[in-house]
Amino acid sequence: MFDWFAMNRSAADQFQKLCEIVAKLRGPDGCPWDREQTNESLLPALIEEAYEVAEAARAKHDAHFREELGDLLLLIVMHAEIAREAGRFDIDDVIHGVSDKLVRRHPHVFGTSDAHDSGAVLKQWEAIKRAEKKADSHYLASLPRALPALMRAQKAQSKAARVNFDWAEVRDVIAKIEEELREMKEAIRSEDKKMIEEETGALLFAVVNLARKCKIDAESALQKATDKFVARFNQLEDELKARSKKLGDADLAEMDAIWNQIKKNAQHPTFASN
After folding, report:
1. Residues 95, 78, 86, CA angle at the centre, nearest 5°?
2. CA atoms of 127 and 132, how far apart (whole Å)
3. 139 close to 163: Cβ distance less than 8 angstroms
4. Residue 42, Cα to own-chain centre: how many angstroms?
5. CA-to-CA distance for 229 and 266, rounded, in angstroms?
6. Which of 65, 170, 233, 237 is deepest in the core (most CB within 10 A)?
């Protein structure tokens, strides 16, 4: 039988060791750099590490994923240690807070609520969250402004959908995209920069809605599209080098021809290897 108690005790011991290491690094005989850090100074690193965790997860590289999770955990412990030193809160408060929240917001697991599918669970979560945050005057008041724009758009749409403000069918979203595209063309013809910016945002928002409706994460989809572009652009650059040319030397027609061949080879790899 698997010994869950032994596993949890081992994890707790390792976590306690990490907390002690961080406290020593911040102590009088610790590291000068670590002692100088504040919650504010560590924010860029926290954001960067979160993105690196996401990148490692998408790459499905377990060793890298494990390492990046460790780096993120280190920063969480560091933030909590800085707060402890100032008498604001400590890591135990952080753990207790999130544990209580998980139990409170999962009454279908820890209580008597009846939620059979993920849709019902999400609606229940939102209802409990709204009850907890009575000070918020509007439903979307808790939507973080610090999120990347694409992610924030999808989160706003997802939250609205949980209270039934959503398109009924995918075709409705496609019709909205076509409408926004027409308005975008009109804005471009008007040469009104403010209108063009507004319609660009509306078009992007509608495309994010399509991704969400198709159960695709827009942020991940755009990351993959950008990765594909970078890989193909690198191939384009290599081909120009093989022709004794550099980026900037070739005209658009030549680069477009190379690009189309790269796309064709990607679609028919067996032909490219012959």
Report:
1. 85
2. 9
3. yes
4. 19
5. 12
6. 65
DSSP state of 246: -
Report the C-alpha gap between 267 and 85 in whole angstroms. Answer: 58
3-state secondary structure of 115: coil
Q: Which amino acid, one-letter code, is at 20?
A: E
Sequence length of the chain is: 274
Lookup: tokens for 93 = 């408060």
pLDDT higher than threshold 90 for residue 202: yes
Report d(CA 186, CA 189) in Å as an integer. 5
Q: Tell me how far apart the alpha carbons of residues 68 and 45 are, in angstroms, rounded to a whole number.
A: 12
* Cβ(202)–Cβ(166) below 8 Å: no
Across residues 199-209, what is the average pLDDT?
97
Cα dihedral sign, 155-161-167-171: positive
* Residue 222 identity (one-letter amino acid): L
3-state percent breakdown (helix, strand, coil) of the chain, nearest 5: 75, 0, 25
Which residues, in sequence order, are CB contacts of 220 under 8 Å at separation 6+? 58
Q: Are 181 and 200 in contact (CB under 8 A)?
A: no
Residue 154: name the closest of 209, 222, 201, 220 by CA. Answer: 209
Read off the pLDDT band of 6 (50, 70, 90): low
